[in-house]
Amino acid sequence: MKPLIFILVIITSFSITSCENNENPKTNITTGVYGTIKYGEGDCMPVINESARIYTNYNGEIYFIIKADLDNLGTGNFEQLKLNSIHSNVKNGVLAIELPVNTYVVMPKNFYDNSNLNTITIKKETVLNSNFKFWKCTSY
What's the rounded Cα separation, in Å, for the pair 70 and 66? Predict the structure, then answer.
């Protein structure tokens, strides 16, 4: 009977640990950002009202481009800047990443959006809870 109880205790411990990690993705982050990323695309001619847009949880690469570098890029190579930026793979819309102190523009892999809505400032020993929504126009 004792081995059965021991096995149940171990299984329960793993289940509790798994639930904690899924519910709180920032557990190991001391300076950075966590939250959700939603993505949608559709016709922009005519423009679809925000309330009628359908977003799904984003799956793919997300880039954290230093805002000062982007602002000073001029006619430089944006793709090279993006490739040299911090990036992470996002699954099912879950974002959790340790980042150095700086101001970043957050962008999905195949989508350029330099806006205040997706600009974050990371401060020392602070973890931001930020959610992002990206809408890609398929026609203009």
Answer: 6
Where in the sequence is the domain holding 99, given as residue range(s)?
A: 30-139
- Express each pLDDT in 59-112 by its tens digit: 999 999 999 999 999 888 999 999 999 999 999 999 999 999 999 999 999 889
Domain-located, residue 87: yes
What's the pTM?
A: 0.78
Which residues, 6 or more positions from 2, have their beta carbon under 8 angstroms from its beta carbon? none
Mind spelling out the 3-state secondary structure of 10-39?
A: HHHHHHHHHHHHHHCCCCCCCCEEEEEEEE
Q: What is the CATH number of the domain that holds 83?
A: 2.60.40.1120
What Å distances lie between residue 124 and 33, 62, 77, 104, CA to CA?
12, 22, 30, 14
Peptide bond into 46 cis (omega under 30): yes
Rounded Cα–Cα distance for residues 29 and 5 (Å): 35
Domain tally, the chain: 1
